[in-house]
């Protein structure tokens, strides 16, 4: 099983050989490399401080103990949030005036995966340049550990659930009174991870009293594939209908992705999480928006309608954040249900996303299904092809680029090819050994046909 090193962190499966999986040796090595970077960057005599937190994975406690011990051995103080969420750790880093953060989560990957997601002092993902430096230090094992009387302290801190919720309640566009007045009945699929702790607590703070939580035990034994896609959410859909709930909410294991289910069990569409939240934000404050180039064009249409300008970035949260800062966007994110609210914090955050979406729905004066009907009906076909070792992806992409040379092509991040009003985006994943093939059209069959045509092209190139 693979060990993947990218701007999305150090990610791999648990169990197996060192250097080929996220083995204990690799956890120590990459943690030590990150700690070394922070120590070298530090200019004062205060101990370096790192905030860590983990999702509900089976391997979480084991990986956390290795990370804590390694950082302590470097002389770094550790603020341990314990079971937490990615956005909560991101918020905690600047509040703690820490030098960096490490989130122990493999996001939407299955239970055998875990990862080190690395944050800078702003609580944002490290840059590609810092990532390259980390890989060099890890490869050379260029670490210097602290003397026995200079070991770092471990400081447990379980206050950040409430601090995160308090910050959401204080955010100007969150309308708690309007949400409470609607008496929403909500079903939550917490996928046996920390969303089972954080999402119900947030809903209660927003005045939502009638909450049913599915997969509510934080065991890391995910009840289904943890990526919040329609074919994984059949249980949530059926319970929403059975319980006559107003809506369903699904998050991924580290609570940075978000999608909704309508009252009739149909999907609101993970692509439309950002569209709806952006529509609400833009109705309150004019400005620009950003999403990655694998996301629906509906966001561009909503932005232009609201008097703003839309910009596309390369895929990856760090790339979206960089573009958002460049164009001073008021809202942005990714079509996988990732909401980034820049004046809250520059990170995907399902919790602030829930609060803003419910504020929007409360003001809509109709059902979630009727809210969805306000937006265009585009279809994105999301597919992937697994890569065997040694496949020359560049050669495959060059072949496809030549074949479709008469069409507009953007090769900033993989290949995005435009076919009149439709598009297809091919790119290697930062988190799995695969090529993703996303295509969008006004008809589902057209989107699927475009995707399947390009998948055949890729398979032909792999022969």
UniProtKB/TrEMBL annotation:
- Entry protein name: Phosphomannomutase/phosphoglucomutase
The portions of this protein that span the membrane are none
Residues in Alpha-D-phosphohexomutase C-terminal domain copies? 398-456
User: Keywords of this protein's UniProt record, alphabetized?
Assistant: Isomerase, Magnesium, Metal-binding, Phosphoprotein
Please name the top-level EC class of this enzyme: isomerase
**GO molecular function per UniProt:** phosphoglucomutase activity
Family statement:
Belongs to the phosphohexose mutase family.
Which residue ranges does the record assign to the Alpha-D-phosphohexomutase alpha/beta/alpha domain? 8-143, 164-265, 272-378
The cofactors named for this UniProt entry are: Mg(2+)
Q: What Pfam families is this protein classified in?
A: PGM_PMM_I, PGM_PMM_II, PGM_PMM_III, PGM_PMM_IV
Q: What is its EC number?
A: 5.4.2.2
């Amino acid at each position: 099983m693979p060990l993947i090193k990218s701007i999305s962190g150090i990610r791999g499966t648990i169990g197996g050989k060192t250097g080929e999986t996220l083995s204990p040796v690799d956890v120590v090595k990459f943690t030590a490399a990150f700690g070394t970077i922070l120590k070298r960057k530090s200019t004062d005599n205060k101990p370096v401080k790192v905030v860590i937190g983990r999702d509900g994975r089976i391997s979480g406690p084991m990986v956390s103990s290795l990370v804590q011990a390694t950082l302590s051995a470097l002389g770094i103080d550790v603020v341990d949030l314990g079971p937490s969420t990615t956005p909560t750790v991101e918020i905690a880093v600047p509040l703690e005036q820490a030098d960096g953060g490490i989130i122990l989560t493999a996001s939407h990957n299955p239970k055998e995966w875990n990862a080190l997601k690395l944050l800078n002092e702003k609580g944002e993902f490290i840059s590609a340049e810092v990532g390259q430096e980390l890989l060099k230090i890890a490869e050379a094992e260029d670490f210097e550990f602290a003397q026995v009387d200079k070991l770092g302290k471990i400081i447990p801190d379980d206050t950040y659930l409430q601090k995160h919720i308090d910050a959401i309640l204080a955010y100007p566009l969150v309308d708690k009174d309007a949400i409470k007045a609607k008496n929403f009945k909500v079903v939550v699929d917490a996928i046996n991870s920390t969303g089972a702790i954080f999402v119900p607590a947030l809903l209660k703070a927003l005045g939502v009293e009638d909450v049913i939580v599915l997969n509510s035990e934080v065991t890391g034994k995910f009840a289904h594939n943890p990526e919040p896609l329609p074919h994984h959410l059949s249980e949530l859909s059926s319970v929403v209908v059975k319980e006559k709930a107003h809506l369903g909410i699904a998050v991924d294991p580290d609570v940075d992705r978000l999608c909704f289910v309508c009252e009739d069990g149909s999907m609101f569409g993970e692509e439309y999480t950002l569209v709806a939240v952006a529509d609400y934000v833009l109705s309150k404050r004019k400005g620009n928006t950003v999403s990655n180039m694998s996301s629906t064009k509906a966001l561009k249409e909503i932005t232009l309608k609201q008097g703003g300008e839309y910009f596309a970035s390369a895929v990856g949260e760090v790339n979206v954040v960089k573009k958002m800062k460049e164009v001073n966007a008021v809202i942005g994110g990714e079509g996988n249900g990732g909401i980034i609210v820049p004046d809250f914090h520059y990170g995907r955050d399902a919790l602030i996303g829930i609060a803003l979406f419910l504020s929007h729905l409360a003001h809509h004066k109709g059902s979630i299904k009727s809210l969805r009907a306000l937006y265009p009906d585009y279809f994105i076909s999301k597919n992937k092809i697994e890569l065997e070792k040694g496949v020359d992806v560049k050669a495959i992409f060059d072949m496809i680029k030549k074949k479709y040379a008469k069409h507009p092509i953007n090769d900033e991040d993989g290949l995005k090819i435009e076919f009149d009003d439709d598009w297809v985006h091919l790119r290697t994943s930062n988190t799995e050994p695969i090529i993703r093939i996303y295509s969008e059209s006004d008809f589902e069959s057209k989107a699927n046909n475009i995707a399947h045509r390009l998948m055949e092209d890729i398979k032909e190139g792999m022969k």
